[in-house]
Amino acid sequence: MSDRVRLDETEQWQALRAHREEIGEPPLRELFRADPDRGRRYALESGDLYIDYSRHLVTDETLRLLRELAEARDVAGLRDAMFAGKKINVTENRAVLHVALRAPRDAVIEVDGKNVVPEVHAVLDKMAAFAERVRSGEWKGHTGKPIRTVVNIGIGGSDLGPKMAYEALKPFSDRSRDFRYVSNVDGADLHENIRDLDPAETLFIVSSKTFTTVETITNATSARRWLLSALGDDAAVARHFVAVSTNTEQVAKFGIDPANMFEFWDWVGGRYSLDSAIGLSLMIAIGPERFREFLDGFHLIDEHFRTAPPERNAPFLLGLLGLWYDDFHGAQTHAVLPYSHYLSRFTDYLQQLDMESNGKSVDRQGERVDWDTGPVVWGTPGTNGQHAYYQLLHQGTKLIPADLIGFARPLEELGELADQHDLLMANLFAQGQALAFGKTAEEVAAEGVAPELVPHRTFPGNRPTTTILANELTPSVLGQLIALYEHKVFVQGAIWNINSFDQWGVELGKALAKRLEPQLTAATADTSDLDGSTATLVERYRTLRGR
Ligand code: F6P
């Protein structure tokens, strides 16, 4: 038996449990009536982000108890260990240093006694030089044509980040070029993305930390075949393929010249790698200067997280509020609802960040946890969701905490369409209002609604939301938002005592697929070693394929 202190046996956890019983679900209407200043008091600023957390089912006492829990679990200690380059990813014996990727040039962050910041900046400089060559047209394809389309081939952390950020920052991108993202091993993904392209004008960035991920290597191999069948010369690969990886050997084995490889390091987790060389496609799209602004945005929140006291520390606060619902209200999911079309892929990105990090059920010592860990993260941009699933948010039986994210200013390039922005934001504010305060049966009846319809038209309210408001969706603000969520996830993992930095849960499916593939394709297959369900499905599949 280890001598670890179980989270649910700590006095701080017990105090929170007792407090939860005592206050129940305090009506937000009452909380605001009792404290007219709550909207201002329960808000904080972190970088350019204004965060309103007044519509949560918490009192000053709740927040104090939650902070005491964070203190007892030494979240600040683990945070400092991360920033100091300690190997806090205990199951892989690795440092966790995505914060070094956005550190300024003169910063010193050591791993095993070596300052990694100069290497980070050397790669950033190499990326910038390459990005400028592509952007200026100086980098030419094999036949002498400039590059018109950049296709990133990667999956998971090697895809979701750059794809999301490219969509988010499209207005800052070079509109004369097209940027595409291929991830799915379903050939349809590659097909749809290259069918209208001229190979002579296409650059593939093969992005893979390990360079062994089957989806990525399969797609990259097919893309190379497509390119060579058009250009007919192996030498073309060097002008049309570059790699982003930690694995020089595999990159060379694939046939990409290591001179065309952009490196990163094992202390960068896949889902934390967007601001490493994995962001190369984004840098080509928005240019090195904007990319630096993006990294500076991350760094601003890193510094806030590192130095702000817990009561004014946004990642602490958001982490603790999430935990309050997960562990003391039985909430199973968390909705992220951006009121910005440009953030249409933001929630997809957060799914990996949060669920791959905190979807764990054993603690750092390998013992089963008896408390709920990471929630299911989901959501799509408002106002589309309002006409789909918000019904359940407002009147369903489940408590679903949500983040509403919006921006004061529309992007300039929208021109006349910018007039629609006030309506968009009115929707954001109205949804937070409706979710929090609802509409009572008395209020509904007073409108003359037929008595039998009153229950149907009543809104219970008390559905918690955080509103995150910024001036404009710039590269810096996007970096700030991402770092906010990264550190929120960190705070929660630290309290739950789980390792947020490994992902063993993805391995079993990979191994089984590798074993099954020959049984689908071989001329004859022996399925007797399979379980009854899989054997039947494989046999049915083979019949349908005429095998
Ligand atoms: O299978 C999960 C995973 O390992 C992610 O953590 C990672 O982001 C993704 O696969 C891609 O891995 P790689 O960058 O090594 O191809």
UniProtKB/TrEMBL annotation:
Gene3D superfamilies given in the database record: 1.10.1390.10, Glucose-6-phosphate isomerase like protein, domain 1
The keyword Cell division belongs to this UniProt entry's keyword annotation: no
Substrates-to-products reaction catalysed: alpha-D-glucose 6-phosphate = beta-D-fructose 6-phosphate
GO molecular function, one term: isomerase activity
Entry superkingdom: Bacteria
The enzyme's E.C. designation: 5.3.1.9
CDD domains: SIS_PGI_1, SIS_PGI_2
Swiss-Prot/TrEMBL keywords: Cytoplasm, Gluconeogenesis, Glycolysis, Isomerase
Record-annotated active site: E356, H387, K510
The UniProt record lists the keyword Isomerase: yes
Subcellular location: Cytoplasm
EC category: isomerase
Pathway: Carbohydrate degradation; glycolysis; D-glyceraldehyde 3-phosphate and glycerone phosphate from D-glucose: step 2/4; Carbohydrate biosynthesis; gluconeogenesis
Entries under HAMAP family matching the protein: G6P_isomerase (MF_00473)
Family membership noted in the UniProt record: Belongs to the GPI family.
Function of the protein: Catalyzes the reversible isomerization of glucose-6-phosphate to fructose-6-phosphate.
Designated name of the protein: Glucose-6-phosphate isomerase
Naturally occurring in which organism (per UniProt): Actinoallomurus liliacearum
Gene: pgi
